[in-house]
Amino acid sequence: MNRRYKYYIPKGTQVTLEFSNGVVSGAEARLDVYPKTGYKFKIKYFKLTTPPEVEANIILVNDKGEQILLAIPQDEDTVEVYDYSDFDDEEMFYLNSFALYAKAKTNITATRDVVLEFGGVMEIPYL
Predict the structure, then answer these.
(1) With the CA atoms of 32, 40, 63 and 30 taken in that order, what torsion angle do they form, in degrees rounded to the nearest 10?
(2) What is the DSSP-derived secondary structure letter of residue 11?
(3) Count of the separate structural domains present in the chain
(4) Which of 2, 6, 82, 110 has its CA 20 to 30 A from that of 72?
């Protein structure tokens, strides 16, 4: 059996959390993203896009547990790229999973999409 040990995640892969019109202030949502069974993520970058009325953060899950990437959530109506090389601990981007977390800052007045783009690889650890 020929098993692949590494899968490249195409640049621009993304997940989306939707807040519908009428969602009340303070409502929270979380979307967990997992690699293939037996693999870990090795993320190179995240690009987080927050719409009006919503703030967001990225939760990293590694062997040490859960860590919130941003000390202060990304504010509404913002686009930022977070590259692993911008952080002291590059190992924190070697992940069992990650989550997109978002919260309504006010009552939502139209459908709002929080988008998390990412890239990197999925690989079998310790090979």
Answers:
(1) -10
(2) E
(3) 1
(4) 110
112 located within any domain: yes
Question: For residue 96, what is the DSSP state?
Answer: S
Q: How far apart are CA 14 and CA 118, in angstroms?
A: 6
Q: For residue 5, give both structure tokens.
A: 């040990």
Block residue for tokens 């978002």: 102
Residue type for 116, please? L
Is 0.90 topped by the overall pTM?
yes
- In tens, the pLDDT along 57-94 reads 999 999 989 999 999 999 999 999 999 887 776 666 88
Long-range (24+ apart) CB contacts under 8 A made by 62-68 are 62/91, 62/92, 62/94, 62/95, 62/96, 63/96, 64/92, 67/92, 68/101
Dist. CA 38–CA 5, nearest whole Å: 10
Cβ pair 21, 110 in contact under 8 A: yes
- Domain of residue 44, CATH code: 2.60.120.260
Q: Which domain holds residue 29?
A: 6-123
